[in-house]
């Protein structure tokens, strides 16, 4: 059993670190590299500088490394996408996982020639951003219950209804949208995936303030017309594509770097502060907490490597990913909790206040790590997956 990277992979890690260091001294770098941003906010391509950075990634040949050469890729193993993503997440840069990993790969496997020709070059050039329109008010964990109505009309489809929790809807160019095209079919069989321009006049985007600050949106669609050529793959096969799109993201979705980074900052905090004249790093109760957390960060790393080891064999790491997500999101919460305990009253100030410690980082972290336990499958859904798939328990 070897958990280490190969020599070539280590060389690539160094290359990416050098690239990031060179980018960090450029103007607007503070906007691109924002490790203080939390959770969902960190991945967003929501400023001109972040958009420009995606184009720089493209020029360096870092987008679509694992794509087939036929579509402009390099046919490198998925581990290269993983390494790139980890290093970007470590420094709070936006991630290409959604466009290159998830949507791009699904288009490669199922898109028509028209959709491939239109979208793949833009994805590879880092010129396009998508919002994922899956969840609805009555369809989150049970996504196949989605009801957004798409009716056949004049060589296309008329879409009416509501989506909720669409992150990036306020900044994205295109909507990757799941809608019900056959209301009479069994629920998994009447869904199709559409590509819709976000600036369609029938689309209204309303921000939702979450406990982790504005991260997501409600989207209302009124008589949005989409021609047949913007359906992904076959009509009513959308459920298959949605599941595949989530699976294709397996090299870029489950990151460990933000957790490692946050733990490092917690240790720095303990090494830099004193309480009643005693350095925090000499207080037994605090040392104990930090040491237990350090072992848990190591455990999380091993769990993530298990996800990778399955993904590398081109299999879907369903249970491994559920265990990792459950453990790592709870650990993120515990890290923030310990930091808040250590900082005491000072830790309660939000970043808007001058007196906040480290620009309110830990207070924001305390709130937003809760959000991580909901998106991409809630804690309970991860537990159900482990119970059913791994332990064969009844649900
Ligand atoms: C910040 C944020 C960003 C998001 N971004 C997007 C996005 O870009 N696009 C998108 O489509 N969606 C997005 N989501 C939606 C996310 O995927 C859903 O919130 C999630 O799947 C849960 O669905 P729900 O909110 O409808 O809750 P529900 O499914 O209604 O769940 C409510 C509660 O019941 C529990 N529960 C549900 N079913 C079961 C069960 N079978 N057994 C035990 N407990 C259960 C859940 O764990 C939860 O505690 C985002 C969510 C958040 C918070």
Summarize the structure in words.
The protein is α+β, with helices and mostly antiparallel strands. It has 3 domains: 7-128, Acyl-CoA dehydrogenase/oxidase, N-terminal domain (Butyryl-Coa Dehydrogenase, subunit A, domain 1, Orthogonal Bundle), CATH 1.10.540; 132-237, Butyryl-CoA Dehydrogenase, subunit A, domain 2 (Beta Barrel); 254-390, Up-down Bundle (Butyryl-CoA Dehydrogenase, subunit A, domain 3). Helices cover 46% and strands 14% of the residues. It is built from 13 helices and 10 strands. The strands form 3 sheets. A 4-stranded mixed β-sheet has the order 1-4-5-8. A hairpin with a 2-residue loop joins strand 9 and strand 10 (278-279). Helix 5 (79-90) runs parallel beside helix 9, helix 6 runs antiparallel to helix 7 and helix 9 runs antiparallel to helix 10 (284-312). It binds flavin-adenine dinucleotide.
Question: TL;DR of this structure?
Answer:
With about 400 residues, the protein is an alpha+beta fold. The chain contains 13 helices and 10 strands. The chain has helices at about 5-25, 30, 40-45, 50-60, 80-90, 95-110, 115-125, 240-250, 255-270, 285-310, 320-345, 360-370, 380-390; strands at about 130-135, 150-155, 155-165, 175-180, 190-195, 205-210, 215-225, 230, 275, 280.
- The outline comes out as globular
Bound molecules: flavin-adenine dinucleotide
Q: Largest beta sheet: what is the strand line-up?
A: 1-4-5-8
Mean of residue pLDDT? 92
Tally the helices.
Answer: 13
CATH class bucket of the largest domain: Mainly Alpha
Determine Rg (CA atoms, Å): 22 Å
Major sheet size, sense and barrel closure: 4 strands, mixed
Order of helices and strands: HHHHHHHEEEEEEEEHHEEHHHH
Give the beta-strand count.
Answer: 10
SS strand fraction = 5-15%
Percentage of helical residues?
Answer: 40-55%
Distance between the termini: 34 Å
* Count of spatially separate domains: 3
CATH architectural label of the largest domain: Up-down Bundle
Query: CATH topology of the largest domain, which one?
Result: Butyryl-CoA Dehydrogenase, subunit A, domain 3
Low-confidence stretches: none
What is the CATH H-level superfamily of the largest domain? Answer: Butyryl-CoA Dehydrogenase, subunit A, domain 3
């Amino acid at each position: 059993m070897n958990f280490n990277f190969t020599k070539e992979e280590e060389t690539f890690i160094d290359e990416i670190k050098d690239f990031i260091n060179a980018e960090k001294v450029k103007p607007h770098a503070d906007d691109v590299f924002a490790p203080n941003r939390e959770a969902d906010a960190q991945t967003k391509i929501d400023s001109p500088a972040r958009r420009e950075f995606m184009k720089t990634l493209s020029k360096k040949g870092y987008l679509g490394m694992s794509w087939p050469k036929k579509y402009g890729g390099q046919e490198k193993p998925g581990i290269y996408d993983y390494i790139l993503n980890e290093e970007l997440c470590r420094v709070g840069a936006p991630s290409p996982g959604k466009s290159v990993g998830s949507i791009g790969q699904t288009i490669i496997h199922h898109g028509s020639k028209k959709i491939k020709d239109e979208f793949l070059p833009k994805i590879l050039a880092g010129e396009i951003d998508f919002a994922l329109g899956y969840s609805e008010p009555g369809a989150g964990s049970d996504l196949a219950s989605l009801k957004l109505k798409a009716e056949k009309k004049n060589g296309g489809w008329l879409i009416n209804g509501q989506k909720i929790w669409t992150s990036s809807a306020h900044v994205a160019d295109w909507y990757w949208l799941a809608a019900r095209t056959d209301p009479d079919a069994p629920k998994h069989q009447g869904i199709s995936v559409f590509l819709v321009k976000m600036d369609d006049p029938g689309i209204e985007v309303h921000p939702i303030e979450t406990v982790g600050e504005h991260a997501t949106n409600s989207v209302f669609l009124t008589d949005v017309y989409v021609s047949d050529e913007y359906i992904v793959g076959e009509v009513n096969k959308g459920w298959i594509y949605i599941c595949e799109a989530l699976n294709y993201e397996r090299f870029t979705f489950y990151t460990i770097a933000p957790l490692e980074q946050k733990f490092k900052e917690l240790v720095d905090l303990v090494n830099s502060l004193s309480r009643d004249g005693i350095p925090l790093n000499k207080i037994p109760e605090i040392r104990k907490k930090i040491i237990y957390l350090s072992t848990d960060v190591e455990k999380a790393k091993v769990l993530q490597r298990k996800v990778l080891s399955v993904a590398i064999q081109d299999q879907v790491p369903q249970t491994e990913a559920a265990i990792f997500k459950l453990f790592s999101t709870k650990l993120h919460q515990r890290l923030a909790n310990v930091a808040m305990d250590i900082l005491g009253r000072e830790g309660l100030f939000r970043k808007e206040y001058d007196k906040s410690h480290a620009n309110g980082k830990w207070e924001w972290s305390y709130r937003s790590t809760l959000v991580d336990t909901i998106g991409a499958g809630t804690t309970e859904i991860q537990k159900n997956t482990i119970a059913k798939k791994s332990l064969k328990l009844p649900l």
